[in-house]
Amino acid sequence: MPSKTPHNNAAKDGDDSMTVVVPPSKSSKQPAPSTDAEGDVAMDVDKTEEEKVDPAVQAVADIKANFALLDRAVALFDARFSLRALRSISLIRKHLSPDVIAQAIADTFPATSASGSIAKSLLAAVGREDVALGRAAGAEMEVDSDAKAAKNGTSKKEVKEIIPEIDVFLGILVQVYLFDAKKYQQGADFSKYLSDRIQTLNRRTLDCLSAKVYFYFSLFCEYIVPLPPSPESPIVAIRPTLLAVLRTAVLRKDTDTQASVIVLLLRNYLLTSHIKQADLLVSHTQFPENAANNQVARFLYYLGRIRAIQLRYTEAHEHLTAATRKAPSSGCAVGFSQTATKLLLVVELLMGDIPDRATFRQPSLEDALHPYFLLVRAVRVGNLEDFETTIADNADIFKRDGTYTLILRLRQNVIKTGIRMMSLSYSRISLRDICIRLHLGSEESAEYIVAKAIRDGVIEATLDREKGFMKSKEVGDVYATREPGEAFHDRIRACLALHDESVKAMRFPMNQHRLELKNAQEAREREREMAKEIQEGDLDDDDLGGDLDGM
């Protein structure tokens, strides 16, 4: 007690030196957070900055995370997991490099795996043949139960084999890297090797992956010199390969590969202007009904282009309208929407219709469709001079879009539109005035064009050849005809078709009906057993859940 008195007195006097000589406790030896708030914040910020993940390391982790999805796709026989892995490529490709791909391959394939030759081929494609396999897999290989080793009488570690879906997925990443690096010839050679390997594997879980492999195979050949439409282009040489793949896909009922290869063949024929062969392919093959929505949109676009070239504008308009409606609304498909809309606008003009002005006001289409807006404006007013000026100024854009030859057909439509505008404005107009307004060469040409417009039903008028004028008839009420009802019927039919396609595209868990059937069978078995026990009198009062004394 006497020894405590000075300590208490010192504390009351405010002597701070006594707190310094106090021996630290055991808990104080461990690092503790400082009481300084500002110091704590600074230390946390530094730690956060130091713990930033390297993009290459994160890319390798993202690649390896997709392997679990591929394993589930094989185990459950559900292609949706494989599609999820393919959708992640758009995020991974930003950080793809030979080192990232080599690291993922080395971490995936153990050194003693039977798939070592496949791994070496993947590494050779990215120029990393000297990378050793099994670096990250060593920790897993060292973990082995002693009982299993004693039972086998050896210390050899068991190595899990890599399923083909994983190495094909890595091969697709190699294709993506080679395409982004513009190594088209090397990519075509590697794609040939990858397609040959897929042909040796008859696995339905590889369907969506093989479709992506053939897509990049065809894409590589399009960029190899000589470029299409040259007959010496490599895309002509791969047609037998694609046709053989299509036959195999039909026999194996491979819907994904079948839809993808049909679209690739149509694109192949159109690039070299083999329209007749493309039409024969469409007539002799059946596009799968349950194909992916993206492939259906591409097929409808190419089919619409074929029909437009064949002067079958009504069918082309139906196909292109369906293609634009099926196009994804996200920003990833802006290019396809622009291309399909451009062709759709030209087809509408060839049909004699004027596209809606709201189409050109969409933010994603406004800049791309500006030349077509000038074209539509010239056709709408029937000004042949503005029409020819627009074509001359934007000829390069129209040729790049593949619509130049179709636009040249619009000259007669511009003349017919001009005649129609004059027939609505004047009850009678001379052929000389028509010739001057439409910039035609002679009155005989004006007379021929007016006569053809009357025969085609473009205008309601009569032609007086002796006096040289055109006399318009009175325009009746359009609502007294069947035209509004037919237009309303077409819209209803389009909505019903869209509803039917949406129902067909719905997906449900695999074998769910079998699980429900199994549960129903088990319930019936329990009911039979209970009925049998009731008949035999084996059930007592407690089993039935009630007291039977009152009965």
TrEMBL record:
SMART domains in the record, alphabetically? PAM, PINT
Superkingdom of the organism of origin: Eukaryota
Q: By what name is this protein known?
A: PCI domain-containing protein
Which GO CC terms are listed, alphabetically?
A: proteasome regulatory particle, lid subcomplex
Q: Where do Basic and acidic residues bias regions lie?
A: 521-535
Q: What is the lineage of its organism?
A: Eukaryota, Fungi, Dikarya, Ascomycota, Pezizomycotina
Enumerate the spans annotated as PCI domain. Answer: 297-477
Gene Ontology terms describing biological process = regulation of protein catabolic process; ubiquitin-dependent protein catabolic process
Q: Region Disordered: list its residue ranges.
A: 1-42, 521-551
| Acidic residues bias: start-end ranges | 536-551
Record-stated family: Belongs to the proteasome subunit S3 family.
Q: Which intervals carry biased composition (Low complexity)? A: 20-34
GO function term, MF aspect, one: enzyme regulator activity
Q: Which UniProt keywords apply?
A: Proteasome
| Residue ranges crossing the lipid bilayer per the database entry | none
